[in-house]
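Office hours follow-up: a student asked to see two folded examples consecutively, so here they are.
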Amino acid sequence: MSEAKKSTLVDVPSKVRLPERDLGKMPVLEVAHLGIDFGGLTAVDEFNLTMGPTEITGLIGPNGAGKTTIFNLLTKVYQQTRGSVLLDGKDTHGMNTIQVNKAGIARTFQNIRLFDKLSVEDNVKVGLHNHMNYHLPSALLRLPTYWKEEKKAHEKAMDLLKIFDMENLANVPAGSLPYGAQRRLEIVRALATEPKLLLLDEPAAGMNPSETAELMENIAKIRDTFQIAIMLIEHDMNLVMNVCEGIAVLNFGKLIAKGTPSEIQNNEEVIEAYLGKKKEV
């Protein structure tokens, strides 16, 4: 397995650390003082994170730390109680899920959400909806505009499937695919929306070691092919440490550490959050 090409994190004048290759470029994501309350419960508080436009970042923490809540805030499943989220310098406040997806954030889910009875290709075409230019009357009447857009959608879907060597499965019902292939298909569908930032929620969940190794290569391949940023929630620390350039650690809804994989591995607060405090003898 080829190792993912990683870039060293360096300090910039704003005290934000970005990959060297992203220096001088506008961050794709700037999250400041983000928080959300559910009634009297604070689920996330004072979350701050900046990502370069081609950075791969890991978001880790114990179960219940608030990781998926962060994803839900970024994609507007939840509206934040406080703080701000800038995507390519644009404030996403007030956007809904569809609007933020069109603006450039796509995601996969912890529990696979495919259209099981649709074909693999049709699942990918669902992700192309942002870029289809025909309207309902054209589709109903099968006007030339419809067929032109359908041809473009077919070609685009097949190009995306080829990246994961899945083009031969285009006509197979999505629900009949093996688990690992369903995971890959969900990523392909997310890529079809042409995101600037791809959020992967536990992409290695349920995968065997061989599938996980392939996933590591695919994550780096996606970044290099599409020149986009990727943030992933993952419990497989081998995957996180090998593919991520920066890692943010959550515990009880608060950010307790940010840094490179080696810095996070040796951070005492992170070790304590995962393993518990060592008893004094």
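And the second, which I mentioned at the end of office hours:
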Amino acid sequence: MHFDQKTFISAGVMSAMFLGTPVFADVGARDVWESWRDYLAGMGNEITATEQEDGNTLTVRDLIMNVAMPEEEGSVSISFGEMQFVENGDGTVDVVMPNEMPMRILANAEGEDVDAEVMIGHTGMSMVVSGTPEEMTYTYNATQMTAALAKLVVDGEALPDFDVSMVMDGILGRSRMAMGDVITTEQKMSVDSLSYLVKGEDPAGSGSIDLKGSVTGLEGDATGVIPQGDYGDDPTAMFEAGFDINGTYTMQGSDFSLNFIEQGAPGAVSASSGAGSMALEMNGSVMAYNGSVTDVQMNAMGPDIPLPIDVSMGEFGYGIQLPLASGDAPQDLAMNLKLVDLGVSELIWGMFDPGQVLPHDPATLVVDLVGKATVFTNLMTLDENTTEVPGELNALTLKNLQLDVAGATVSGVGDFTFDNTDMVSFDGFPRPEGALDVKILGVNGLMDKLVQMGLLPEEQAMGARMMMSMFSVPGAGPDELNSKIEVNEQGHVLANGQRLK
């Protein structure tokens, strides 16, 4: 079961409108209601409701939104019950929503008919709308918001012992929405804590799941441009119409624990982390995302795991940037990965190093690449079955390579450009030109220890040393090797000035 793009965007808009704005110009109760209604209907959703005006209050009853899933896989129906839009007399409007709102999901997931009802609730919510009919700001806060599974029926069979719930505490935020041919949004939001629970048993009695988790100190800052219209069947057209989202999100910490039984055998997984962040940018020109999390602890054991796994990391980071739009000029691309102070328990070390021959220090891997590429065909329109080459690589820079493991280190930087008119010199790959500088410390000592432990045959170690001697020269320190790999404009490959190709 999955949701299409319009479902995702509609849910985001409702979240912003659940929660509202400072005093600007005048906005009326009907302005707020019609803005919401027209936007949701413009996304291809079916909206039904009855309206009644009484003085400064517009009451909307029996408000139901029906969202169709793609490929006729089902629908989502959200009933808001009764809502009131109350004019305050100062150009602002209070939006009063019921304490509980049912959301019904009818879907076909992997051949199974699913009928689920989720109850959404809140306490201490305040939502105020201000601005103008064309540009409204929502200022909101809530003591708590909840979502809980009230009913789950699969292929006509009720699953009574299945619990799914989420609780958010301490919600505060502000959202601005400007209406036009496109919807422009700006949102800032914070949540003191978020907790979730999934617990249930397989009706056949062969397994169970008990998952609990929480996230603290959530903050988000995002902007978006969302074209009006139904793009569920053609997301490419949505990007061409100006779809653009950009957001950054941070947290102070997280944890979860999972206990399960599978085919009668128990297992458990737990994890925790410190501060983390994530950033996302997506539009017709670029897709970029990056994130990091610190102080990671992970533990796992189960029927298919021969011994408990205990892993820690000081930092885990990742990032990617890809150009999407076609053009004549080279565009930026990037990729990075960071695993800092990756450690495992002594129990795991003891499996292959019981004599503690190797240093058991945490390992580190850092790879940071940037480059340029020319895109021939808009990647959003590319057919997944095509054999067409969508672009060419123009330049690649290794800003940082770092590998520290078992007492050996490898570091390097490099910079190359690529001649795409020469696809012969390197067998179908554009000819590179540039250099890679690498420094290796402690690798001979590491191989000696691996041979001592019986993990590396002597003849393979000898072959590796001969290979390294071809590509490197001794450095200034003990067990230090340096290597400079160059490719010149003639396509010659040189190692420390000696031609290899």
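Two things to take away from it. The two ends are 54 Å apart (CA to CA). The CA atoms of residues 322 and 406 lie 34 Å apart.
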